[in-house]
Amino acid sequence: MNVKKMDCPYCGANLKIAPNATHCRCIYCGSDFQIDANVEMEHKTVVDSDGYITLENGERVKPYHNYTTVQTDPQGESREYDFYYDHTGKMHWGAPPAEKLKRVKITVLTILIAIVAFPILGLIWFVSDNSSDTTRKVVYEEGFDPYSVIAVSADGVSGLAKLHITFTQSGYASMGEWTASKETGLVNGDVVTIQFVPKALDTQYKVQDRYYMFTANDTFDEFTYTVSGLNEYVKDLDEQGVSAEDLDKFCQIAEEEIDNTMLASMDFGDADFKVTDIDYLGYITRIKKDYAGGELLILYKVTLSWYGQPYEKYVPIGFKNVQVTSDGAVVSDYKPYLKVAGVPTDSVGETNAFAKPPVWAVYVYGFDSFSTMETTLLFGDAGTYDITDGHYED
């Protein structure tokens, strides 16, 4: 059979075609093209029956087949490169024409699939996420405990403490309200009742990928919280377990305050003034009514000397905001103050800080008798304080 020989105008491969053919498809690159009837060319390269050609070095290769090799670039990085041989045995870098065309087709097809598929997938997700399928709803009886997502605590001093309700998991606050029977003025031993009330019935709530809906048939138990562990204002030293060591600490600070404050206030230069003796008489505890603050008063008889002449004054040293913890430890800022009894005046009613003998500090920081001190502390401040405990030395 007579055949016409010509090179593929796209890849240059040697083709054999029928004499009367007007169209041809290249068996190497897959290109279609029309045949010029006047073209008839011979090619010297021989392709064997397996489709291979033999190079000058004796290596058999398949024309226009995509080969790869690993090369090291100038930066020292290894990269994979494509190459192929044409029908004459010449090597070319890059993918052969048929392979390039195939890659372009795959890329275009992938883009078309993505353009069509993404809107469809988005619509499917939207419909499924907003579905009203009641099988996804979880109601209260099926496992939701409204008290499992909150933590209850109280802080402050007993009598002034406040209740705190915090969420241990996010997102649940929108479902309803957790109300407490008592929120302020808490004391140790108070039992607080907490009740959950949904914000709306027959309304679906989605929280952390779970669905909840409450109906009129749902019932909600109450949750109780017992207040404990709060500090107590000092009321009864024995009952609250205040140790003798704690009381001794207050006495030591009080006696230092007597020495420092009274001596400093009586410094008239050449005056021979000093504190000669301090006798402990006892203590009184009382609660300030308007803010429930605990106060501890240490009572003393102080002997003073002015140029050898003795004076006796009864001095209470106060400590405010004294608290006792649940294990009996005392908490306080330990800042003492001297109880003020009054300011002396002269015959015309004006304040006289330099009267002789010097009575300014002695009078201001003390009482003339124990009974006067006791009456003032127990009854004179009755509108402000409640006396809770007292102890006098024999």
Tell me what the structure shows.
By secondary structure, the chain is an alpha+beta fold. The strands form 9 sheets. The chain has a 5-stranded antiparallel β-sheet, sandwiched between helices. Strands 7-8-9 form a 3-stranded antiparallel β-sheet, with no helix packed on it. Strand 22 and strand 23 (330-331) form a beta hairpin. It has 3 domains: 4-98, no CATH class; 136-226, no CATH class; 233-392. It has helices spanning 97-129, 244-265, 360-364, 370-380; strands spanning 4-7, 14-17, 23-25, 32-34, 53-54, 60-61, 67-72, 78-85, 91-93, 137-138, 150-155, 162-167, 176-180, 191-198, 204-207, 210-213, 223-226, 232-233, 273-288, 294-306, 309-320, 323-324, 330-331, 336-338, 385-392. The radius of gyration is 51 Å and the shape is elongated. Residues 40-44, 132-141 and 341-363 have low confidence and may be disordered. 19% of the residues are buried.
**Count of discrete domains:** 3
Structural class: alpha+beta
Taken as a percent bin, the fraction of beta residues is 25-35%
Q: State the end-to-end CA separation.
A: 145 Å
Mean pLDDT across residues: 76
Can you tell me the overall shape?
elongated
- Could you describe the largest sheet, including whether it forms a barrel? 5 strands, antiparallel
Helix segment tally: 4
Rg, please? 51 Å
Number of strands: 25
Low-confidence stretches: 40-44, 132-141, 341-363
H-E string: EEEEEEEEEHEEEEEEEEEHEEEEEEHHE
